[in-house]
Amino acid sequence: MIPSISKKFAVAIFAVTAVSLAGCSDVINQGGDTTCKEFLTQDDNAQNDAVTKMLKDENQQEPSGLQTTAAKNSAMAYCKTLGNEKSKIKEAPHI
Question: Is 76 within the bounds of a domain?
């Protein structure tokens, strides 16, 4: 009886883990490789995170709040005008 319970418990844990990991695939912060389509549908915090990671990856240091805001506004303007849904936010002009 105990081996049967252990087997069911192991299967249940595996299933929960698989479902949890499947849900995480869309949460990965791609930084400058975030597409305009993704960027424009993200909430404010996710956009800030993407831009901050992009700037960190480029400069190897934590960007200031002003740099983050300027780069975010630039990415937003670029994606809404010159960019297309496959354009990456790192293609937007920024400092």
Answer: yes
For residue 63, being part of any structural domain is answered with yes
| Total number of domains constituting the chain | 1
Question: What is d(CA 33, CA 54) in angstroms, rounded to the nearest whole number?
Answer: 8
pTM: 0.70
pLDDT confidence tier of residue 92, bands split at 50, 70 and 90:
very high
Tokens of 4: 């049967």
Q: Which residues form the domain of 81?
A: 28-91
Give the closest residue to 32 by CA, choosing from 65, 63, 1, 66: 63
Which residues neighbour 21 within 8 Å (Cβ) at sequence distance 6 or greater?
none
